UniProtKB/TrEMBL annotation:
SUPFAM superfamilies with a match to the protein in the record: Ribulose-phoshate binding barrel
Keyword vocabulary terms for this entry: Amino-acid biosynthesis, Aromatic amino acid biosynthesis, Isomerase, Tryptophan biosynthesis
Gene Ontology molecular function: any one: phosphoribosylanthranilate isomerase activity
Domain N-(5'phosphoribosyl) anthranilate isomerase (PRAI): start-end pairs: 3-203
Similarity field: Belongs to the TrpF family.
Name recorded for this polypeptide: N-(5'-phosphoribosyl)anthranilate isomerase
EC main group: isomerase
Pfam families for this protein: PRAI (PF00697)
CDD domains: PRAI
Tree of life domain: Bacteria
EC number, as in UniProt: 5.3.1.24
Species, as recorded: Ichthyenterobacterium magnum
Gene: trpF
Pathway: Amino-acid biosynthesis; L-tryptophan biosynthesis; L-tryptophan from chorismate: step 3/5
GO biological process: L-tryptophan biosynthetic process
Length: 208
């Protein structure tokens, strides 16, 4: 499994997290978020892909942020259209489209994005676009009809280690490409607990 650590904010903390060598680091460019990033991303190892997280942003805003921070990917957490996703292909970066799940999910909603986006991300449906802090019913993904690789997100922390191992060994994880963590590893919004992240990474089989 690949590992994405999202909601980064503090420069020194970003550099400490980078030492854990995650595959992806996420920076939230949504002003209503408590993890909104409005700083300069410090120099990171080239193997760590920087992902910008957006919610119903315009193409011009996303393009400006991608160019400013030299992002390698965009993660779309709102009601972005397939047309916008197609337009974003011109930025030559990874496109991750997020879908929120609670107890059920209509997988037909994936179809318009199937041939446009590089990855899907499944998060917990809650009051916020992300960072709600609890998991959804992962067994819903037993009915995943696609072969497109996806990120699993939503309230994943140390308490979910055993549940996550079960998921990774189940049929539902066949196309699971990466685990996305955020709020369960925080001291405060945007500030990550390094020791807990290290323990999580060591206890799960993440590809390097």
């Amino acid at each position: 499994m690949k590992l994405k650590i999202c909601g980064m904010k503090n420069s020194n903390n970003i550099l400490d997290v980078a030492k854990l060598n995650p595959d992806f680091m996420g920076f939230i460019f949504y002003k209503k978020s408590s993890r909104y990033f409005n700083d300069t991303i410090p120099e990171l190892p080239h193997n760590i892909k920087k992902i910008g997280v957006f919610v119903n942003a315009t193409f011009d805003y996303i393009k400006g942020i991608v160019n400013k921070h030299n992002l390698q990917g965009v993660q779309l957490h709102g009601n972005e259209s397939p047309e916008l996703c197609k337009q974003l292909k011109d930025l030559n970066c990874i496109i991750i489209k997020v879908f929120s799940i609670k107890d059920t999910f209509d997988f037909n909603s994936l179809e318009p994005y199937e041939n446009i986006c590089d990855y899907f991300l499944f998060d917990t449906k809650g009051k916020l676009p992300g960072g709600n802090g609890y998991t959804f019913d992962w067994s819903v993904l037993n009915n995943y009809p696609s072969t497109k690789p996806f990120f699993l997100s939503g309230g994943i922390g140390l308490k979910q280690k055993e549940k996550l191992k079960e998921f990774i060994n189940s049929e539902a994880s066949k196309y699971c490409f990466a685990i996305d963590v955020n709020s369960k590893f925080e001291i405060e919004p945007g500030l990550k607990h390094i020791e807990k992240l290290e323990e999580f990474k060591q206890n799960l089989s993440f590809r390097t």
